[in-house]
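step=encode ok
step=design start
structure_in=
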């Protein structure tokens, strides 16, 4: 692979030089040299304080990283996104999820059409529908109120609503319970149906394309279940759709009036604040959803206007890129210290890896540097008792984002201090560890010392948020959306397509034909044999 323009840029060269000169610099040393570091290397906006002091950054490193973002055209690309330019080049589409949270009087154009009025029209229909469901004026076929909501969808039509349902547990409308069916494995649907009373169940079929195998298969099975219990005429009261594909929704038997649309300029993984958020709105009510949108919007404004050196998404983005491209970090951990935020790592996996898991640049030229790291994580303190051992003493570099909330997350308020004590302690332990000298001073036997030393110097960001609310959840999601964007711009890739997921879908359809015996497709010897074994076991 040849060298790229990216690697030839002045800032990239400076960063390479800094990396080469890094020597024995440690976080402990950086803090010793500058006792004000923990106060200085902090940025705050929209109720989020980012402490990035425990990173392998000198002042000149950060300056070069920000210069790199500038050289790569971040400011112009950011303006292009907000202006509706077709920055999703491979699909020739605008990327306007920011329009989903724009106030009604703002104008954002896609091909000469102001999209904001359409956004607000759908929002109004969603709010009216939710109010009716909550009031019981939109009820089931037998007249019972609908209190069990099932979101049938996958990927971006699932991960956001499910994450938000758990995250906003304390903001839920009393009496409403939600369920999520994503996997084509019938076990997912079976387990949910077992909990439901058909007379009180509302299915939200959420699919941008309304062609996704998993969602359509589960939706048809759910429809059969409901019809068996309540008859065909019940479908229109118990099924609504969220989609851009009106024709497919109608073909499924859902009336257009019961369908909530969005647009091709909303990527699936950027859609939780579109009509895909219908389940979220049903869970937390229209006012709560508006607060969520306000949070997204606040972070958009910050991303647009704050200087790069104080811009939270930009800081998160370039810091992650520093480890990824200059220290060869393979992964990044997302560690929310909030049980209710336990699905946030899974949500960010799609957001980041489907966006930036790319191998060529916008011109189709193979990248000569790594793109997205592997994103993973679990909530603290759970993870402390499983994989933190590797974080503290393993051989791999895993930069971590730790996320915590000042306000208690439950009525067991005394437990919150313990949770937060663990959060701060982990950030400290990762950064500074425990040396052999400290262990000796504690009287630890010499033979044990190598096993007990925690070398520290493990970089981490700490995001401290006031409270976990609809507003703050919006700010957090938008923060990572724009951080992903920042990294994608620096790599010069299309962060908004996802061609890599297509092949598996095509091959699965072919193998399905082989399994059902309706066609015989050529395969490699391994796949051939696996299919044959499976068929034989299923039909002995
Ligand atoms: O297969 C990947 C993907 O296309 C995601 O990008 C998307 O979020 C998901 O499938 C679901 O797609 P849809 O909303 O069209 O059912």
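sequence_out=
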């Amino acid at each position: 692979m040849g060298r790229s323009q990216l690697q030839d840029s002045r800032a990239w060269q400076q960063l390479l030089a800094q990396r080469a000169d890094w020597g024995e610099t440690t976080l402990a040393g950086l803090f010793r040299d500058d006792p004000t570091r923990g106060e200085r290397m902090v940025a705050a906006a929209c109720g989020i304080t980012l402490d990035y002091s425990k990173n392998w950054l000198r002042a000149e490193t950060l300056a070069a990283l920000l210069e790199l973002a500038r050289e790569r055209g971040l400011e112009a690309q950011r303006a292009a996104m907000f202006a509706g330019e077709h920055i999703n080049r491979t699909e020739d589409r605008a990327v306007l999820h920011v329009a989903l949270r724009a106030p009604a009087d703002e104008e954002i154009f896609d091909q000469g059409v102001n999209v904001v009025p359409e956004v607000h029209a759908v929002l109004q229909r969603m709010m009216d529908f939710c109010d009716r469901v909550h009031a019981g004026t939109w009820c089931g076929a037998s007249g019972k109120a609908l209190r069990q909501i099932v979101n049938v969808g996958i990927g971006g039509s699932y991960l956001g609503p499910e994450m938000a349902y758990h995250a906003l547990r304390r903001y839920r409308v009393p009496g409403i319970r939600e369920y999520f069916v994503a996997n084509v494995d019938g076990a997912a649907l079976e387990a949910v149906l077992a909990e439901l009373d058909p007379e009180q169940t509302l299915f939200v079929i959420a699919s941008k394309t309304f062609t996704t195998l998993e969602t359509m298969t589960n939706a048809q099975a759910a429809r059969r279940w409901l019809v068996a219990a309540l008859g065909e005429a019940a479908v229109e009261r118990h099924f609504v759709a969220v989609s851009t594909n009106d024709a497919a929704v109608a073909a499924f038997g859902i009336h257009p009036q019961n369908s909530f649309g969005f647009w091709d300029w909303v990527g699936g993984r950027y859609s939780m604040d579109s009509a895909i958020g219908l389940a979220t709105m049903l869970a937390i009510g229209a006012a709560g959803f508006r607060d969520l949108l306000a949070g997204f919007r606040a972070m958009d404004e910050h991303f647009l206007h704050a200087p790069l050196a104080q811009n939270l998404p930009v800081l998160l983005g370039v810091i992650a890129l520093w480890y990824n491209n200059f220290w060869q970090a393979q992964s990044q951990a997302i560690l929310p210290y909030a049980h209710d935020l336990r699905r946030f790592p899974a949500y960010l996996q799609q957001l980041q890896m489907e966006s930036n898991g790319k191998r060529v640049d916008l011109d189709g030229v193979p990248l000569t540097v790594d793109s997205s790291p592997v994103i993973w994580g679990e909530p603290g303190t759970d993870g402390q008792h499983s994989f933190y051992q590797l974080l503290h003493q393993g051989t791999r570099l895993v930069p971590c984002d730790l996320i915590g909330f000042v306000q208690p997350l439950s009525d067991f308020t005394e437990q919150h201090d313990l949770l937060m004590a663990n959060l701060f302690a982990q950030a400290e332990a990762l950064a500074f560890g425990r040396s052999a000298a400290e262990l000796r001073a504690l009287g630890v036997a010499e033979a044990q010392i190598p096993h007990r030393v925690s070398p520290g110097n493990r970089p981490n960001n700490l995001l401290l948020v006031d409270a976990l609310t609809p507003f703050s959840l919006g700010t957090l999601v938008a923060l990572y959306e724009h951080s992903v964007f920042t990294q994608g711009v620096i790599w010069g890739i299309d962060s908004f397509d996802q061609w890599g997921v297509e092949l598996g879908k095509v091959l699965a359809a072919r193998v399905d034909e082989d399994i059902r015996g309706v066609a015989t497709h050529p395969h490699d010897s391994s796949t051939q044999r696996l299919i044959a074994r499976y068929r034989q076991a299923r039909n002995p």
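step=design ok
step=annotate ok -> The first strand starts at residue 42 and ends at 45.
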